[in-house]
Specification:
By secondary structure, the protein is α+β, with helices and mostly antiparallel strands. It has helices at residues 4-30, 66-103, and strands at 32-37, 42-47, 52-57. The chain has a three-stranded antiparallel β-sheet.
Length: 111
């Protein structure tokens, strides 16, 4: 049954979730993830919000074919962004999973 107490409990849980979400977003912003290509000749650092922080290119490859260097840059950045996306999704799903689990005990009339 849906009561005033249940509603207050839901609001309390929502506030807790909001706080966890904000804390996780702050953690993700500080998180630094490395993507690399060409055996580490190109290294891209991204944060958990999938923003490129830095890009390092080994000077030795700058004399090589420009298209190859561009491909290595794209590969390193994409690897970093992919890892950041996976980490973000993992951390966020932990929050949403705990919320959905706690709401599973709620009895809603008509269901």
């Amino acid at each position: 049954m849906f009561t005033k107490g249940n509603f207050q409990n839901i609001m309390k849980q929502a506030k807790n979730v909001q706080e966890k979400l904000e804390a996780t977003q702050a953690e993700l912003e500080k998180l630094e993830i490395k993507g690399q290509a060409g055996g580490g000749m190109v290294v891209a650092m991204v944060n958990g919000k999938q923003e490129l922080l830095s890009l390092k290119i080994d000077p030795e490859i700058l004399t090589d074919d420009v298209e190859m260097v561009e491909d290595l840059i794209v590969a390193a950045v994409n690897q970093g962004l992919s890892k950041a996306g996976e980490e973000s999704q993992k951390r966020m799903s932990g929050i949403s999973g705990s919320v959905l689990g706690s709401l599973g005990d709620l009895e809603i009339p008509g269901t």
